[in-house]
Fold:
Amino acid sequence: MKKLAGEAILLRAVDFGESDRIAHLLTPEFGRLTVIAKGARRSFRRFPGTLDVFNHLRIAGRPGRRGGMAFLEQAILISPFLSLRDHMGRFALAGYLVETLDRMAPENGSPAEARHLFEFALSALRTIEKTQPDRRLRLLVELRALDALGLCPELRRCVRCGRPPAARAGFLVADGGVVCAQHALEVGAAALPVHLGTLRALQQALELDWDRLQRLALGRQALAEAESLLFRFHRFHVGLELRSETLLEESLRGDSLTPRAPRVDTPPLQGRPAGWPNT
Ligand SMILES: [Zn+2]
Structure:
């Protein structure tokens, strides 16, 4: 690794020993990076209160010895994202986002991937900072995070035959995406029913810039369907239950839809449901 210099977002930090701090950073050059800041809790000059979660930083440091943890020598604040800290909903959603990145961002991804992921994280935090988070924003941030991590479900084409679903579609969690009506019938109960309108809205959500994304219309039915399939997709393919999820659920409890957890038990299609094509 070459000398550390550039921007970073702080994903997590813990005290270590008498005066050090270990920080997990997301950087546009190295992707996720764990560093040790020696004497950080004593040196206000090198770390003027900067090693806290969400902080957008300008950092300087040097590689670790024999491939060990890199040394962070200085961190200067670019933005503290202050308004993420004074509102429970914003804090909870931003916390969920940075924990997702801390657990799933690659440590040695390609420079292009690292830059893309960093830009995503910065844009997402700036968006959350300006909003009043609700279930819709949580869904959109989660979908965009999966996309930025290269883990997005296939929403355009049947994962079994490659054809775009033309009528009713299903979502096959284990295969990671949508199935056409014919393949939904073949796999039976494994396919979750999903309306084409929901799939189109999710496709749009991946293409819009953040300003337009905030105005994307998502009806109650589409939101409920999208939440259900994304939740199951996340559990199956990512497999992590994040610690920040409990706080996030708590902060969104007043939002219009029923709490998220019970929807996991919504039964999938049983055999051939009423109203589905016979052929
Ligand atoms: Zn198909």
Observations:
- Residues 158, 160-161, 163, 179-180, 182-183 surround zinc ion (CB under 6 Å).
- The first strand starts at residue 4 and ends at 16.
- Residues 83-157+196-254 form a domain with the de novo design (two linked rop proteins) fold (CATH 1.20.1440).
